[in-house]
Amino acid sequence: MSSEICESERVQTRGFFYGYLSGIGVTCGAHRLWSHRSYKAKRPLRIALMIMHTMAGQNDLYTWCRDHRIHHKFSETDADPHNSNRGFFFTHVGWLLTKKHPDVILKGKTVDCSDLLRDPVVRFQRKYYTYMYLFWCIFLPIWFCHTILGHTWGDSFIGMYGRYIVSLHVTWFVNSAAHMFGDRPFNGKIAARENQMVSFAAWGSEGFHNYHHVFPWDYAISEHGWKFNPMKYKIDLCAKYGLAYDLKRPSPDLIEKVKENSLKQANNIHPYEKPHIFC
């Protein structure tokens, strides 16, 4: 019995590691690099991030980044693919289960994504995404755990699909919980919020969503001084070895000025008109 428990724990640990790699592809790649151009990357790094993003199984880079750019431009409107005004379930996963609102398609065409298609790495993944998804996200982790590491097919299947389900929900919580629960120190007029639970679950900083919607071009996606930010450290490490460059960050003074202006605006609102803030 104890050996079975140890076997299961080893599979879970390897599933966590695979999920962590896929998280790098989503946060450092799809989000910070391709969606927001918060830094630039040499081709070897872009290829590695593309593969890790494919491991996450969250659609191809072009589609992921296009939807995210539309979300930022039309946040909390009918043109937002995962409009939080339509409720928690919709913004968490329901938007993937229904047809897109006509405004998402119509206004989405006004969002320029031509830079994505100019990148041969993005084009390659988009062209062969179905095959790459089946290999990197589905087949490889199960085959590796069974054939190379010697786990049973059942344990390999459960462990690797467990990490897939968890990683999907972590990303979805950024869209849902980080738009509904938390404070709004940078802009009280938008739905995006600071949610530290989401930040910890999403590898360090993705839950600083109010900040992110005000400074989407910050490669760290968090305030100066926030210590737990492993994805930022990975980009910094790549920059140290010349794989990443032109890292963008707002100055601490600019961040403080934005917070002060937001506080002044909040204090000028009539008490009965102030938006409720979830803590």
Summarize the entry for a quick read:
The protein is built from 13 helices and two strands, in the order H-E-H-H-H-H-H-H-H-H-H-H-H-E-H. By secondary structure, it is an all-alpha fold.
Task: Describe the protein's topology.
Elements: H1 2-35, E1 40-41, H2 43-56, H3 61-73, H4 88-92, H5 102-108, H6 114-117, H7 120-127, H8 129-148, H9 153-175, H10 196-201, H11 209-214, H12 230-240, E2 244-245, H13 252-267
Antiparallel strand pairs: 1-2
Question: Can you tag this structure with a few keywords?
Answer:
globular, disordered C terminus, 2 strands, 1% strand, Acyl-CoA_DS, two-stranded antiparallel ribbon, transmembrane, 279 residues
Model description:
Its main location: membrane. It is found in: Membrane. Keywords: Fatty acid biosynthesis, Fatty acid metabolism, Iron, Lipid biosynthesis, Lipid metabolism, Membrane, Oxidoreductase, Transmembrane, Transmembrane helix. Belongs to the fatty acid desaturase type 1 family. This protein has 279 residues and is mainly alpha-helical. It has one domain. Helices cover 60% and strands 1% of the residues. The protein contains 13 helices and two strands; from the N terminus they run αβαααααααααααβα. The chain has a two-stranded antiparallel sheet with strand order 1-2. α1 crosses α2, α1 (2-35) runs parallel beside α9 and α8 (129-148) packs across α9 (153-175). It is globular and about 65 Å long.
